[in-house]
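User: tokens in, sequence out, please.
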């Protein structure tokens, strides 16, 4: 495993060398600012995650992996098991990690390359329940908030990163979710496989009525204090990264990814006075299924991994101590503002400029 040092500007808020086994400088979070990544030896093992069932991404994988193998022959390239099987002939030099041993990704990986869209990055997050190595993401033509690089520029971007030419990092906050029974004990998996482990989420935890037609009743607790009982289609707990996803569609605020906060956003509440709220990063949120609910509620994490909660069962969400370090083109704030303007057309007029050009020219 290659050694790396991460330095940061602005204000450090926590020293946690025991949390980040990869980092040689004992810092984890920073308020409002960029981290700078500096390799001491260069990455020895690179994990490449690709979007499935896409011909363009398949070609990009072969191109990127072959280029790395040729230019940096001492680097190990790792892919997921199904990818290793599918590309056994064209990429005979890659390695893989067996199914069921995801913890090995954290242990051996120095750098992650994603090829695809935002969904590919969410999948990458799900592979790392604890510390995450730096992630550089390449867009395959998909518009997204998490895709700072175009695949056409992969050689320049990767060479600068691997050869230590001042990479800028944004630590994207993630969420930790646990599921509990009425007595507070951790829930067991329905298939009898044992206790449901801690669940790490990048975008949002969604508690929803699901397939049931009736509104669900949800008790909302913050740090053990009940703040309200919501009657709604559901509630979303989102990270700042997730603020431009489901939470935004439900009327939630847009939050800069450098800000540490938890977003609580209602989905179609019965009371129109129930507005989205932002909570401090050290808050612990509990959402409990109320006695008045007519059916169970569904829990989904980043749009996947659905669980069911019955009456008096609850989920608990707090900030994960393991953010995702994402490589940016420039300063994190500049990347984010460009995305807001380009993708959301934020605060832009809906006038058709082409149709108005005749009047403007006159």
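Assistant: Sequence out:
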């Amino acid at each position: 495993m290659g050694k790396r040092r991460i330095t940061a500007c602005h204000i450090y808020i926590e020293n946690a060398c025991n949390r980040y086994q990869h980092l040689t400088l004992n810092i984890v979070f920073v308020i409002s600012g960029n981290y700078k990544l500096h390799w001491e030896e260069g990455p020895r093992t690179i994990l490449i995650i690709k979007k499935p069932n896409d011909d363009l991404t398949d070609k990009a994988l072969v191109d990127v992996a072959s280029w790395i193998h040729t230019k940096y022959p001492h680097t190990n390239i790792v892919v997921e098991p199904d990818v290793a099987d599918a590309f056994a002939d064209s990429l005979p030099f890659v390695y893989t990690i067996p199914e069921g041993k995801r913890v090995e990704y954290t242990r051996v990986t120095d750098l992650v390359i994603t090829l695809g869209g935002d969904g590919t990055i969410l999948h990458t997050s799900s592979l790392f329940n604890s510390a995450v190595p730096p992630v550089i993401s390449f867009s395959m033509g998909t518009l997204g908030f998490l895709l700072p690089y175009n695949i056409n520029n992969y050689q320049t971007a990767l060479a600068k990163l691997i050869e230590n030419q001042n990479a800028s990092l944004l630590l994207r906050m993630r969420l930790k979710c646990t599921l509990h029974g009425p007595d507070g004990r951790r829930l067991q998996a329905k298939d009898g496989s044992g206790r449901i482990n801690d669940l790490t989420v990048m975008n949002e935890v969604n508690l929803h009525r699901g397939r049931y037609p009736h509104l669900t009743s949800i008790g909302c607790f913050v740090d053990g204090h009940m703040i309200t009982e919501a009657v709604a289609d559901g509630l979303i707990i989102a990270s700042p990264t997730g603020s431009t996803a489901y939470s935004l569609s439900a009327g939630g605020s847009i939050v800069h990814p450098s800000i540490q906060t938890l977003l609580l956003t209602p989905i179609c509440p019965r009371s129109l006075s129930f507005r989205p709220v932002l909570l401090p990063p050290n808050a612990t949120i509990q959402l409990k299924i109320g006695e008045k609910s007519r059916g169970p509620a569904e829990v989904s994490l980043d749009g996947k991994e659905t669980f069911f909660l019955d009456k008096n069962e609850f989920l608990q969400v707090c900030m994960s101590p393991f953010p995702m370090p994402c490589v940016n083109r420039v300063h994190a704030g500049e990347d984010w503002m460009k995305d807001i303007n380009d993708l959301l057309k934020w605060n832009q007029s809906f006038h058709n400029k082409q149709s108005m050009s005749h009047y403007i020219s006159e």
